[in-house]
Amino acid sequence: MAENLEIDNVDREIISILMEDAKTPYSEIAKRILVSGGTIHVRMKKLEYMGIIQGSTLVINAAKLGYDLTAYLGVYLEKGSIYNAVIKELKKIPQIVEAHYTTGVYSIFLKLICRNTKDLRDVLNDKIQAIEGIQRTETILSLEESIKRPVRFEV
C-alpha cells in the first residue's frame, strides 16, 4: 500500500456518496466526481487499509421479518472489573444488536431487537439477568425510530 495515508476531498466525496447508497458502482462515483474508475478503486483500497471503511453491511427491516420490538436496556454491574466477562456472555444472545460501555448510571447500555414482549421477557429473565455479575437492569421500549443516519462530515 502506498504511504499516502491522508484523506483528501476526493476521499471524502467517495465516502459521502457511499454513505447515501453503498451499492453505488465505482464507475458512477468516478463520473460524479470527475476521476477515473481506477482512482476510485485505489482510493477505496486505501480507505479500507486505513480502517476508515470497514466493510459494508446489509440493512434489514427487522419488523418486516417479525421482529417488531426494539428495546434499550441499562445494565448495572456489581463491579466494573467484571465488564469483559459480562460482555462475553452478552455476545451469545442474538437479540442484542448493540452494547456500549458507558459512563453515568448504567455500566452497559444495550439495544435489543425482539419478536414481541414475550421474546423480550424471555431474553431478560432467562438470559441477561442470569449472567453472573449483573446486579439489575432497566428496560426502555422504543415506540418509533424517528432518526437513523450515519454521522455526516463536511466534504
Features:
single chain, 155 residues, alpha+beta, 4-stranded antiparallel beta sheet, 5 helices, 34% helix, 20% strand, elongated
Give a written overview of the molecule:
With 155 residues, this protein is of the alpha+beta class. A hairpin with a 6-residue loop joins strand 2 (96-101) and strand 3 (108-114). It contains 5 helices and 4 strands, in the order H-H-H-E-H-E-E-H-E. A 4-stranded antiparallel β-sheet has the order 2-3-1-4. The model has no long low-confidence stretch (mean pLDDT 93). The radius of gyration is 20 Å and the shape is elongated. It has helices at 9-20, 26-33, 37-49, 83-90, 117-128; strands at residues 69-77, 96-101, 108-114, 134-142. Helix 2 packs across helix 3 (37-49).
Q: In sequence order, what are the helices and strands, one letter per element?
A: HHHEHEEHE
Q: Give the overall silhouette.
A: elongated
Low-confidence stretches: none
* N- and C-termini, Cα separation: 24 Å
Share in helix: 25-40%
Derived from helix and strand composition plus strand pairing, the structural class reads alpha+beta
How many β-strand runs?
4
State the major sheet. Answer: 4 strands, antiparallel
pLDDT averaged over residues: 93
Percentage beta strand: 15-25%
* Rg over alpha carbons: 20 Å
Strand order of the largest sheet: 2-3-1-4
What is the number of helical segments per DSSP (H or I, 4+ residues)?
5
Mind sketching the topology for me?
Blueprint: H1 9-20, H2 26-33, H3 37-49, E1 69-77, H4 83-90, E2 96-101, E3 108-114, H5 117-128, E4 134-142
Antiparallel strand pairs: 1-3, 1-4, 2-3
Helix pairs in contact: 2-3
